[in-house]
Amino acid sequence: MSGSGRGGNKRQGFRRRDKDRENGANGPRDTKKKGDNPRFDKTRGVFVDRPKWVPPTVPSEPIPVPDCPYCGKPIKDISAALTDKTSGEAVHFDCVLGRLAKNETLERGDTVTYIGGGRFGVVRFTSPQDTRGFTIKKIVEWENKENRSEWRRSLADHYSTT
Q: Is the pLDDT of residue 77 over 50?
């Protein structure tokens, strides 16, 4: 008779026991939320109320939309912009990529690629169809990691308060 739950086994099912406990002879169960109780601090041996979270204030001015000094068009995606080496202004990523491709002497099969950290590289892929195998022939440092530009600081105020 195993599995049927009806034979000689007089135990109630799991769900039914829970319902009986909630609405049993003692009336409905006391429903306190977990956050209603103060937090117990083990080191001091006392109950401590948690401070209430206050959301950070958002700057009232909109995110700036500067013009690219290379092409003159506005930079709509400021998060993808890079800093110009000479002036420190924001420039389009594609404008920097195009300028580097013009200035570098590329052999057949070479491309200019962003390799991260404000750096570009002249890269040769072993197979143009398979981009997993490649060799970096030259690294071009575009952004200086130590000097953070002013436009990045003003942009960070819109996203972070720390």
A: yes
